[in-house]
Every structure is written in C-alpha cells, then in structure tokens.
Design a protein that fits this description.
This protein is of the alpha/beta class. It has one domain: Rossmann fold. The protein is built from eight helices and five strands; from the N terminus they run βαβααβααβααβα. It has helices at about 15-30, 45-55, 60-85, 95-105, 110-120, 140-150, 160-175, 190-205, and strands spanning about 5-10, 35-40, 90-95, 130-135, 180-185. It has a five-stranded parallel sheet with strand order 2-3-1-4-5, with helices on both faces. Helix 1 (about 15-30) crosses helix 8, helix 2 (about 45-55) runs antiparallel to helix 3 (about 60-85) and helix 4 (about 95-105) runs antiparallel to helix 5 (about 110-120). The longest helix has 26 residues, at about 60-85.
C-alpha cells in the first residue's frame, strides 16, 4: 500500500476530533487526498454499531463490547480504510485498536493482549504509520466534557478510576512503541499541538 495511515488516540475530552480535523484541513490544502474516518462509526454499519456501543441503555458484557468494536473495525478497515490506502490516499482516523486495548483491555479489565489480538485479526494486521496520543488526566478530561455537553455516552460516564486505567494503558502502549507514537500534552494550546503534529507528518511524507 502506498498511502499513509494516521490515527488519533487519547482519553475523552483530549481534543482528538479537533486535531484530526485540523490535520485533515492542512493536508487537503497542501493538495493531498485525505479520507477521514472514526471508530466506531466510520461506515454506515459502523454508525449503527456506534449507537449500540455508546448509547444503548442497559448492561453490555465487557467481552461483548470488545467484540462489537472488533466488528466495527473489521468493516471499517475492509471497506473504507484499506481501499483508500491502496489508492495512495492519506487516512486520518479518530481512534483505532489502541483504544480497544486501553478501554476494553485496561478499562474493562479484560486481557489486553487478547483484545489486541482480536483487533489485529479484525483489521487483518493493519497498523498505523503514526499514532498521535493526546495525553490528558481523567480529571482534566472530565472538566472539559462538563463544559461542553450535558450528557455522556456509556464510556464517558465511567468513574475516574476507569479513565485513569485507560490513560495509563495509552501511555504504556506509547512507551512500548515510541517510533509509532507521537505523545503530546493535550493541555498545550491548540495551535501548538497542530504545529507539532504537522511537523511529524511532514517528516513521514518526505521520507
């Protein structure tokens, strides 16, 4: 594949959506063809799965939740991401398999290695060229969410210890794969974060 696959990760409220949008705009203005996706919800099927995963009332068993994310991922990669990469496009995606390891593995206290293997199987082994991790404490993330919305989805509504486990997992993943990850403090100014991300992406494009 000749394209470039960039994913954004981080806790709730970390600013992933903002930064992925800014990067998409920057690359598009530079003349690149960019496909933007998200998990869950990057396809028509994914939108239906997203509604179940994030907004269904009532209990969902942790293993069932992990499998629903894997189903969304399998369809997204097969029908949207991989075809775009094969065309030579740049794919920017809000969340990928690292989120499953952090949220369902560490957050739901499942076996993180098993969750990762499930995700890799669903994605047929596809890994990002770059993963941008916007690091933010659970407390700061909660404050941001409270200032921007009145309701929370199933994962956002979890208690602080859940979100601290998620954060620790993300940082552990980044430490284990420093060449793939760009870790930035989400408390930095939006423009400064965008510049740092653009610098790293420019290096990938020019390699």
């Amino acid at each position: 594949m000749t394209g470039l696959f960039i994913t954004f990760e981080g806790g709730d409220g970390s600013g992933k959506t903002t930064q992925s949008r800014l990067l998409t705009e920057w690359l598009t203005q530079a003349g690149h063809t960019v496909v933007h996706s998200r998990e869950p919800g990057g396809t028509d099927l994914g939108v239906e799965l997203r509604e179940i995963i994030l907004h269904r009332r009532g209990y969902i068993a942790p293993c069932a939740e992990a499998l629903l994310y894997a189903a969304d991922r399998a369809h997204n990669i097969a029908t949207r991401v991989r075809p775009a990469l094969e065309r030579g496009d740049i794919v920017i995606q809000d969340r990928y398999l690292d989120s499953s390891v952090a949220y369902q593995g560490a957050g739901r206290v499942l076996d993180s290695a098993e969750v990762r293997e499930l995700s890799l199987w669903a994605a047929e082994g596809l890994m990002p060229d770059l993963t941008v991790l916007l690091d933010l404490s659970a407390e700061d993330g909660r404050e941001r969410l409270e200032s921007s919305r009145d309701t929370y989805d199933r994962l956002e509504a979890e208690k602080s210890d859940f979100h601290e486990r998620v954060r620790d997992s993300f940082l552990g993943l980044a430490e284990a794969e420093p060449r793939r990850f760009l870790v930035l403090a989400a408390t930095e100014p939006i423009d400064a974060l965008a510049t740092a991300i653009q610098t790293r992406v420019a290096e990938l494009l020019n390699r």
